[in-house]
C-alpha cells in the first residue's frame, strides 16, 4: 500500500473567538477524488485553504505527500515556516478559486506561463509550449491571446485550471469552482475536472454539485459546524446517509 | 383622420396637422443658444485681455524674445528638468519601499513608515528646502561611523557635501517619497486580495507577487495621481531658488535682479513651465494605456479593432485570432 497524499489530523482553526474548524481528520489517497460538501459556513473553504497554508492552522497537522505543511517540528513544538519555504511547498499544490482570480493584466497564455517561468525557471519557449498544450487540453487552444475580461466565466475558470496544472502539482484543490458560473457554463468546467480525475490527479473538491460528487468522487465528506459529520463512498454518504444532519442537508440541495 | 378634439385629451388628439406619414417627420437637434452666448462673452473677454497684454509696453515682448532662448535660461531649464526627474525617481523608488513597509505585518516597520510619511507631509516643503540648505548650521560636520563610539569611517564639512543642488534634491526627493508612498499604498490596497492568494498558490514568493501581479495592476490607480505629482514637482522646483538652486526660476531671478525687467522674465519662466507641463501629458497617456491592458476600458478599442479585423479577415477566415493577439498587445 502506498502512503496517502493528504493526511489531516485534528486540524483546528479559529478566527478571533470563533472556532471554525474543530478537529478535522481526513485522509486522501493518491489519485483519489475527495468531494467536500456541507452547508454554508461549515468551514469547507477554510479547511481547503489550510491545506496550502493560505490560512495557518492553530492546532493539529496537515501533511501533503508526507511533508508537513507550514510548520517544522522541533521536539514538541511546531515552528511556522518562512514565507519563502511555504512558497516552495505550494508549488506542488494547485488551487482553483470560486472567483477564478486570473491575472487580468495578462493574456490567457501569460497567465499559464507566469509561474512556470518565474518559479520553476522553465525557459520561456518551453513554458509557452506547455501552456499551449494545457490550453488545448481545457479546450481553449484558440483563446491563448485573450485577456480574462474577453473570456466567459467558464472559459476563465478553465484557464485557471490550466494555470494551476502548469506547475505540475501532485494535488489539486478546488473551492466551489462552478458556483460563480451561469448554469449553462457549469458543464464545461466539470468536464475538464472529470478528465483530470480520469488521468489520476489527486483532488479535493469543495462543491455543491451533488451529481458530480456522486459520479466522480471516490470519497464524499460531509462537514457541518467545523467537524466531519460523515465520510465514505458517495453512494453511502449521498444516497444512504447515516446521520440526520447529512440527510436534512441533502434534502435541501437536491 | 379627423381633428375633432377628444374629451380625454389623449396624445392621438394632438394636432399632427397636415397629414404626413410618420417616417417623413424630421427631427431638429436642440439649439444650444447658451453655448453661443458663453462663447461670445469668452471671446470678447479673452481677446480683450490678450490685446491689452500685447499692447502693454511694460510687458516688453522684445525682452521676452531676447531671453526666451538665453543661455542662462537654458541652463536653468536643464537643472529644473533633471531635478524634477531625479526627485520623482527618488520619490517613486522610496515611495514604493515606504508603502510596502507601511503595509507590512511588522508593527515596528509599519509605524516607522507611518511616522516618515506623517513628518514629511506635515511640514511645508519650503521649510524642508531651507532646512536642508542650512543643514550646516545644525551639523557643521557630517561623519559616518558607529554611534556612541569613536569609530569614524568618513567625515567632511557639511557645506562641502550638501551643496545647494544636493540640498534641493534631498528636500524634493524625500518630500515626494512621502506623497508617493501614500499613492502607491492606495494602489496596492485597491487590488483584490484574491490576486495575491492566486499568486501564492502558484508558489510565487511575496516579492515576486508584488512585482509581477499586484504592482502592475496597481499602476492603473497609481499613474494618474503620479502624473499629477510630476506636474506639481516640476513647478515646485521653482522653490529651490531660495537656496540658490540654479534651476530655471533661480536663474530668472538672477537676471531680473540685475536688469529689473521683472515682468518679461516672469513671462519667459511661465512660457517654459507651460510648455514642459503640456509635454508631460504625453508620457502619462502612454503609461495609462500601457497599464490599462486587459481592463474593461482598454477592451473598448480592441473590441472595435476586433470588429474591423473580423470584417477584413472574413474572406480569408481562420487567421483572425492571431491578428487579435497582435492587436491587443499593441
Ligand atoms: N478571514 C476570516 N475572518 C473571520 N471569519 C472568517 C474568515 N474566513 C471565514 N470566516 C468564518 O468562518 C466560517 C467558515 O467559513 P468558510 O468560508 O470556511 O465556510 P464554507 O463552508 O466554505 O461556506 P460556503 O459554502 O459559504 O463557502 C464562517 O462562519 C465564516 O464567517
Ligand atoms: Mg466556501
Automatic annotation (TrEMBL), chain B:
Compartment list: Cell membrane
Leader peptide range in chain numbering: none
Family: Belongs to the binding-protein-dependent transport system permease family.
Pfam families: BPD_transp_1
Region of interest called Disordered, as start-end residue ranges on this chain: 1-20
Keyword Heme applies: no
Top-rank taxon, per record: Bacteria
SUPFAM superfamilies membership: MetI-like (SSF161098)
Domain ABC transmembrane type-1 stretches: 77-284
InterPro entries reported in the protein's UniProt record: AA_ABC_transptr_permease_3TM, ArtM/GltK/GlnP/TcyL/YhdX-like, MetI-like, MetI-like_sf
UniProt KW keywords: Amino-acid transport, Cell membrane, Membrane, Transmembrane, Transmembrane helix, Transport
CDD domains xref list: TM_PBP2
Organism of derivation: Streptomyces polyasparticus
Statement: the UniProt record of this protein carries the keyword Amino-acid biosynthesis: no
Major subcellular location class: membrane
Protein's UniProt name: Amino acid ABC transporter permease
Membrane topology summary: Multi-pass membrane protein
Membrane-crossing segments per the record: 36-54, 74-103, 115-139, 151-174, 262-282
Amino acid at each position: 500500500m502506498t502512503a496517502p497524499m493528504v493526511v489531516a489530523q485534528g486540524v483546528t482553526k479559529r478566527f478571533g473567538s470563533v472556532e471554525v474548524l474543530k478537529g478535522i481528520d481526513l485522509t486522501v489517497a493518491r489519485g483519489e477524488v475527495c468531494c467536500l460538501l456541507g452547508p454554508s459556513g461549515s468551514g469547507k473553504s477554510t479547511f481547503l485553504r489550510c491545506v496550502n497554508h493560505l490560512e495557518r492552522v492553530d492546532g493539529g497537522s496537515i501533511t501533503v505527500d508526507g511533508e508537513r505543511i507550514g510548520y517544522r517540528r522541533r521536539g514538541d513544538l511546531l515552528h511556522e515556516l518562512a514565507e519563502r519555504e511555504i512558497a516552495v511547498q505550494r508549488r506542488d499544490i494547485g488551487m482553483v478559486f470560486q472567483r477564478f482570480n486570473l491575472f487580468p493584466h495578462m493574456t490567457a497564455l501569460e497567465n499559464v506561463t507566469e509561474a512556470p517561468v518565474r518559479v520553476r525557471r522553465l525557459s520561456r519557449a518551453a513554458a509557452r509550449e506547455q501552456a499551449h498544450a494545457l490550453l488545448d487540453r481545457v479546450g481553449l487552444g484558440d483563446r491563448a491571446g485573450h485577456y480574462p475580461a474577453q473570456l466567459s466565466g467558464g472559459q476563465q475558470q478553465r484557464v485557471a485550471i490550466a494555470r494551476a496544472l502548469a506547475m505540475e502539482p501532485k494535488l489539486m484543490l478546488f473551492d466551489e469552482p462552478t458556483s460563480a458560473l451561469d448554469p449553462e457554463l457549469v458543464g464545461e468546467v466539470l468536464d475538464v475536472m472529470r478528465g483530470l480525475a480520469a488521468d489520476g490527479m489527486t483532488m479535493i473538491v469543495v462543491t455543491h454539485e451533488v451529481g458530480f460528487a456522486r459520479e466522480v468522487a471516490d470519497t464524499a465528506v460531509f462537514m457541518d459546524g467545523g467537524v466531519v459529520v460523515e465520510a465514505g463512498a458517495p453512494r453511502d454518504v449521498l444516497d444512504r446517509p447515516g446521520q440526520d444532519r447529512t440527510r436534512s442537508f441533502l434534502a435541501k440541495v437536491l | 383622420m379627423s381633428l375633432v378634439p377628444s374629451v380625454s385629451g389623449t396624445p392621438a388628439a394632438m394636432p399632427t396637422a397636415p397629414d404626413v406619414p410618420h417616417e417623413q417627420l424630421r427631427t431638429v437637434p436642440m439649439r444650444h443658444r447658451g453655448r453661443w452666448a458663453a462663447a461670445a462673452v469668452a471671446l470678447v473677454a479673452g481677446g480683450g485681455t490678450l490685446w491689452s497684454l500685447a499692447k502693454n509696453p511694460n510687458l516688453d515682448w522684445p525682452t521676452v524674445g531676447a531671453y526666451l532662448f538665453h543661455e542662462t535660461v537654458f541652463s536653468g531649464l536643464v537643472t529644473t528638468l533633471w531635478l524634477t526627474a531625479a526627485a520623482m525617481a527618488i520619490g517613486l523608488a522610496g515611495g514604493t519601499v515606504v508603502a510596502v513597509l507601511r503595509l507590512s505585518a511588522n508593527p515596528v516597520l509599519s509605524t516607522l513608515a507611518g511616522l516618515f510619511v506623517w513628518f514629511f507631509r506635515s511640514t511645508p516643503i519650503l521649510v524642508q528646502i531651507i532646512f536642508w540648505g542650512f543643514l550646516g548650521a545644525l551639523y557643521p560636520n557630517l561623519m559616518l561611523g558607529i554611534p556612541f563610539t569613536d569609530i569614524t569611517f568618513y567625515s567632511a564639512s557639511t557645506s562641502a557635501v550638501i551643496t545647494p543642488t544636493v540640498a534641493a534634491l534631498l528636500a524634493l526627493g524625500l518630500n515626494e517619497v512621502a506623497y508617493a508612498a501614500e499613492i502607491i499604498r492606495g494602489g496596492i490596497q485597491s487590488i483584490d486580495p484574491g490576486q495575491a492568494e492566486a499568486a501564492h498558490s502558484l508558489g510565487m514568493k511575496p516579492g515576486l507577487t508584488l512585482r509581477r501581479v499586484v504592482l502592475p495592476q496597481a499602476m492603473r490607480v497609481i499613474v494618474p495621481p503620479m502624473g499629477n505629482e510630476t506636474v506639481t514637482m516640476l513647478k515646485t522646483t521653482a522653490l529651490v531658488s531660495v537656496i540658490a538652486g540654479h534651476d530655471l526660476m533661480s536663474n530668472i531671478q538672477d537676471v531680473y535682479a540685475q536688469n529689473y525687467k521683472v515682468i518679461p522674465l516672469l513671462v519667459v519662466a511661465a512660457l517654459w513651465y507651460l510648455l514642459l507641463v503640456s509635454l508631460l501629458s504625453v508620457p502619462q497617456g502612454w503609461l495609462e494605456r500601457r497599464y490599462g491592458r486587459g481592463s474593461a476600458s482598454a477592451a473598448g478599442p480592441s473590441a472595435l479593432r476586433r470588429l474591423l479585423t473580423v470584417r477584413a479577415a472574413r474572406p480569408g477566415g481562420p487567421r483572425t485570432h492571431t491578428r487579435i493577439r497582435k492587436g491587443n498587445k499593441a
